[in-house]
Design brief:
three-stranded mixed sheet, single chain, Double Stranded RNA Binding Domain, 28% helix, 8 strands
Length: 208
């Protein structure tokens, strides 16, 4: 006996939903590398790379194969190098978030969608031996995209895409701001065989 049209449609939709939900989420993605780009070599003796201290500044709503703060820190480590000098540079992540909100509800024949927003902001400060400010460069980017709120795998791929694109935007904007504001401290690439100190990873001190 044939199923009524409505029952058959419900059964088909249930099978399709099961197929989507059975797709495993992708494994956590490694942050992209920026080491193939020309290093930004500064006339400073040391570069400290610091994460954000406020948890709200690094809010990341899952699924998120790429954590925005990890990407910003990778960019700093790969792009910045110290060429020597009496001053110190401090790179800090100020904001690195990935948030989601419902964009539209799904119907019988349509999939619900969500709006993803990725914001990244960083700041590089240069200070003298006495701690006095000697210059800074700051960059901020924002990416917004509306994607289907389907399976976890689909949502993960959408999140990875927007974070990678935001990271590319930040890399370009950060270099532009650094060359504009700290041009006097920029040096040419290291000569063959010349040792180049890597940026120093520093953990933020606990708040009292």
């Amino acid at each position: 006996m044939a199923l009524p049209r409505r029952a058959a449609l419900s059964a088909a939709l249930a099978v399709a939903a099961c197929g989507r939900s059975s797709e495993p989420p992708p494994a956590p993605a490694a942050p992209p590398s920026y080491s193939h780009l020309t290093p930004l070599r500064l006339a400073v003796g040391r570069i400290d790379v610091l994460g954000a201290t406020d948890p709200a500044a690094t809010r990341t709503m899952p699924p998120a194969p790429l954590v925005p703060q990890d990407l910003v820190l990778t960019m700093a480590r790969d792009r910045l190098s110290a060429g020597g000098g009496s001053t110190t540079a401090r790179f800090r992540v100020q904001i690195a978030t990935l948030t989601r909100e419902s964009a539209s509800g799904g119907g019988v024949f349509t999939t619900a969608s969500e709006r993803l927003t990725c914001i990244m902001r960083c700041r590089l400060e240069v200070v003298g031996e006495d701690g006095s400010p000697a210059g800074f460069a700051e960059a901020e980017v924002r990416r917004v995209a509306v994607r289907p709120a389907g399976s976890e795998a689909e949502r993960s791929r959408a999140a990875e895409e927007i974070v990678r694109l935001a990271g590319n935007d930040l890399n370009v904007e950060f270099e532009f701001q650094l060359r504009r504001n700290l041009r006097a401290l920029l040096q040419g690439p290291a000569r063959p065989g010349e040792a180049v100190p890597a940026p120093v990873e520093a953990e933020p001190l606990p708040r009292s």
